[in-house]
Design goal:
Length: about 325
């Protein structure tokens, strides 16, 4: 029988803790067991992918490996009745791209329970412009709008030029919130104002005085994508009964603060987990992206690249030089 071959980015450990990234021919039959084979049309680049691609054992245990926690494409083969060949689907989160071959290959094979149909009103490409970053941003916004109204005051978004941050800025602005964006990039202002931010402030200015137990209360809510002192500053400067979401640890997984914001101001800290999000909520969020949360500024958020450009893009995201979203076209 003729071997079925596809292209994929393969990360290999060539010596102890020395990793290479190459585009290779892979055998489809070597994919892990699963119910559904998807011909991947688009993927997207996330920080977790960059960690997997550089040998982070907290993300990926065994190599060789193909990263990519996001994939969207067409069902090529299905062993379950509910998913038919030719259907457009999204696979994100769960173990995809971590210890299961991911979306940086032209094919994936996964359990049917990981698969979401692309909702009517959203294209395959749009689903990957959003990807895990957009999905995480939407989960954060979902928590914010359940606790804070636009009339309650400003919402601050940290790490605002990143994937989660940029989509959170665009979505919150579109929903009528006054958004203040925090970024460490000097050239971020034009990009963020285009997405709807009313004000852009530097990361250094935002975290000034963050060693104090409380800061002046300014924010009705916050979406933090950074962690560490930035998250602490957001919590300490949130108004009474405000809500802060957190989803990242680029700065640090450590959080140094007192209980004062929680017991003196009633601030709520909500953790966001997109990887193992329940399917009912997962489907609700994707359906909202196709309807009332359709991002108007979506074309300003992303760049499209070929699979061959991924090694350079991975280096950029690790150095903090990525703006918005990077979408990988697996047919280029």
């Amino acid at each position: 029988m003729k071997k079925r071959i596809y292209k994929a980015l393969v990360v290999e450990e060539v010596a102890t803790n020395v990793f290479t990234k190459q585009i290779r021919d892979c055998e489809l039959d070597a994919l892990p067991a699963g119910d559904v084979i998807v011909r991947v049309k688009y993927s997207s680049l996330n920080y977790k992918d960059a960690l997997s691609a550089t040998g982070n054992r907290g993300v990926t245990r065994k190599y060789p490996h193909t990263p990519g926690i996001d994939a969207a494409g067409i069902v090529a083969e299905s062993a379950v009745h509910d998913l038919k060949e030719g259907e457009q689907v999204i696979v994100s989160g769960y173990d995809l791209g971590m210890n299961t071959a991911g979306g940086f290959g032209q094919y994936i094979r996964v359990p049917a329970s990981w698969v979401v149909r692309v909702p009517l009103g959203l294209s395959i490409k749009e689903s990957m412009i959003l990807g895990t970053a957009g999905f995480t941003a939407a989960l954060s916004v979902d928590r914010i709008i359940g606790a804070v109204t636009p009339g309650d005051g400003e919402i601050v978004v940290t790490g605002a030029t990143g994937g989660v941050g940029s989509i959170a800025v665009a979505l919150l602005s579109q929903l009528g919130y006054a958004v203040v964006a925090v970024s460490g990039k000097e050239d971020a202002e034009e990009f963020l104002r285009k997405l709807g931010a009313r004000e852009v402030i530097s990361r250094q200015f935002f975290s000034t005085g963050s060693d104090r137990p409380l800061l002046t209360a300014r924010w009705a809510g916050a979406v933090d994508t950074v962690g560490g002192d930035i998250l602490a500053a957001a919590i300490k400067s949130t108004k009474p009964l405000g809500l802060v979401t957190c989803c990242g640890q680029v700065a640090s997984p450590e959080l140094s603060l007192t209980v004062f914001p929680f017991i003196l101001r009633g601030v709520t800290l909500a953790g966001i987990d997109s990887q193992n999000c329940p399917m009912a909520l997962r489907m609700r969020i994707w359906n909202r992206f196709a309807a009332e949360w359709k991002i108007e500024a979506i074309d300003d958020i992303y760049r499209e690249v070929a699979l061959t450009a991924l090694p350079d893009e991975i280096d950029k995201i690790l150095k903090g030089r990525q703006k918005g979203r990077v979408v990988i076209n697996l047919d280029r």
